[in-house]
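go over this record:
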Amino acid sequence: MKVYKYFVIVNIISLSFFDIAYTEEEDKKNKVVSGMDNRFFSIGLYSSADTIKTSVNIEFGFKLFKYNNFEMKSYTSIAGSKIYDDNPDMYQLGVMQKITFGNEDVYNDSISISRYAFAFFSFGFLSFDADKSGKFLFSAPLYWEVGGGGGFNINVSRHVAIVLEFGGGLHDIFNGAQLGYPRKLDMVGFGRISIGARYYIW
């Protein structure tokens, strides 16, 4: 479980931006300012489909900082996935850390769209051995992903946005080839589409 400490560390470092970035001159241009505004923290629920699995993600996000019309955000997701196979026991559970870079995410009494790019890395565990027999979910080996893409927040109210993302990357099982895991899980690229919603609490 040591790998999950890295997700905690990333979010602690991200939150430290507020001490670095905060300034009271938020009404002036060309200033890096705190992201603590009325769309600072969000909870999201969305589904993803890629070339090897479908996933359901519960997401917790917050804004790191703003610079003019540019915003940077951090999202941590818990993801549960069903891997495409005839065996119903092929599941994956993991945690994803995503950083987004995009234009200002606001709602001004009408539907608006904010666009962003993102990069992510993910770690998780599988529920099956290489021979597809079951195993304890939190035991080795480790499944990981890294990638990026682009997305849209379609802001339908002050608190609600529809999420649409397109991306891809590389996934692998640590030592999967030596252990005999299927080729589709060993150092293979993938494409992914995600759709869901975010609720802005603050």
User: Anything to note?
Assistant: The helical segments are 4-15, 17-21, 176-179. Confidence is low (pLDDT under 50) at residues 18-26.
